[in-house]
Amino acid sequence: MNEMTDVTASTAQAAQAVKVLPDAQTVTSVTHWTDTLFSFRVTRPASLRFRSGEFVMIGLLKDDGKPLLRAYSIASPAWDDELEFYSIKVQDGPLTSRLQHIQPGDQIILRPKPVGTLVHDALLPGKRLWFFSTGTGIAPFASLIRDPQTYEDYEQIILTHTCRDVADLEYGRRLVEHVKSDATLRELLGDVVEKLVYYPTTTREESPKMGRITNLLKSGALFEDLGIADGMSPQTDRAMVCGSIGLNTDLKEILEGFGLREGANSDPAEYVVEKAFVG
Ligand SMILES: Cc1cc2nc3c(=O)[nH]c(=O)nc-3n(C[C@H](O)[C@H](O)[C@H](O)COP(=O)(O)OP(=O)(O)OC[C@H]3O[C@@H](n4cnc5c(N)ncnc54)[C@H](O)[C@@H]3O)c2cc1C
Ligand SMILES: NC(=O)c1ccc[n+]([C@@H]2O[C@H](COP(=O)([O-])OP(=O)(O)OC[C@H]3O[C@@H](n4cnc5c(N)ncnc54)[C@H](OP(=O)(O)O)[C@@H]3O)[C@@H](O)[C@H]2O)c1
């Protein structure tokens, strides 16, 4: 499938669905962005509280009746009535080879125990917040760029998203466009247009900005493009990183080179990292 497709269930349909799975939630809409990427929304358990940027375990029942669960970042903000997820489709992946076929009205399992380090609490106060993502690693930032606290706490927010191909950027591009133009979000978040900067790049298919974000940082091209004269400093800059293990390792070294230290929920500092997937 090369074109984006949308399927949405009516609220009535979703509400009527009978819960047969443990911790069942009902799918309310599904959007296929590319052959390998899709997003979907599900009902939110009334008792679920989470901090924007956290992840939960979601999944389906296996044929033997046991749950098959995987970690997923919640892509929707903490104030949203529903939960949104942004997912890869791994051809032979135990979960996503099946999950990619869900339809509105279907049920998924959602364990309501959110955790994670990509949260505001794990960072010390700063002026400029960087969200560095590759692939589906944009999911936690899809939540955070819709969270009012992000705009209250920082003067500037820079979201970088690097993918192999242009189509892989579409979910993020649409989301940023939505944040900047949707009347309800504008009312909730305030004048975000000036604070949120979107910096998409591709590494394989030609696009206006090409290159790995690590190389663009090391060469200084990123700062030049954004009109930032003096790079990053532990006094002003805070960063959250979500990508493959290789990306995370390489970015950590660069951030440490600027003097930023890794933080955690229990010990906030200047940057935090989370894997977008294992392997
Ligand atoms: C903290 C955390 C948060 C996560 N959040 C998300 C999320 O929001 N969206 C999401 O799609 N996945 C996310 N993942 C990955 C997810 O848990 C599963 O690995 C993924 O759904 C594939 O499941 P699977 O059973 O089909 O294949 P698996 O057996 O889990 O994976 C098979 C292989 O596919 C590749 N792979 C798996 N997931 C990805 C991915 N997201 N991007 C690129 N390659 C991948 C890896 O090479 C992996 O070894 C997250 C993982 C962690 C640890
Ligand atoms: N997406 C596809 O079209 C595709 C096709 C075949 C197989 N796969 C497999 O599917 C899985 C996920 O693919 P994906 O494209 O979503 O994720 P990915 O391989 O992590 O790549 C996502 C983006 O991150 C960049 N990147 C990777 N490692 C980096 C590092 N150390 N530093 C800086 N940037 C880095 C990649 O650049 P580079 O392009 O320079 O690596 C790419 O632009 C992988 O296991 C991959 O082998 C994907």
Automatic annotation (TrEMBL):
Q: Which CDD domains match?
A: FNR1 (cd06195)
* Entry annotated with the keyword Nucleotide-binding: yes
Q: Which Pfam families match?
A: FAD_binding_6, NAD_binding_1
Specify the superkingdom: Bacteria
Q: Does the keyword Oxidoreductase apply?
A: yes
InterPro entries registered for this protein in UniProt = Cbr1-like_FAD-bd_dom, FAD-bd_FR_type, FNR_bac, FNR_nucleotide-bd, FNR_type-1, OxRdtase_FAD/NAD-bd, Riboflavin_synthase-like_b-brl
The chemistry this enzyme catalyses reads: 2 reduced [2Fe-2S]-[ferredoxin] + NADP(+) + H(+) = 2 oxidized [2Fe-2S]-[ferredoxin] + NADPH
One GO biological process this protein is involved in is: heme catabolic process
Top-level enzyme category = oxidoreductase
Where in this chain does the record put each FAD-binding FR-type domain? 20-121
Q: Which SUPFAM superfamilies match?
A: Ferredoxin reductase-like, C-terminal NADP-linked domain, Riboflavin synthase domain-like
Q: Name one GO molecular function term.
A: nucleotide binding
Per the entry, which co-factors are needed?
FAD
Q: Which UniProt keywords apply?
A: FAD, Flavoprotein, NADP, Nucleotide-binding, Oxidoreductase
Q: What is its EC number?
A: 1.18.1.2
Query: What family classification does the UniProt entry report for this protein?
Result: Belongs to the ferredoxin--NADP reductase type 1 family.
Its protein name is: ferredoxin--NADP(+) reductase
What is the scientific name of the source organism?
A: Palleronia pontilimi
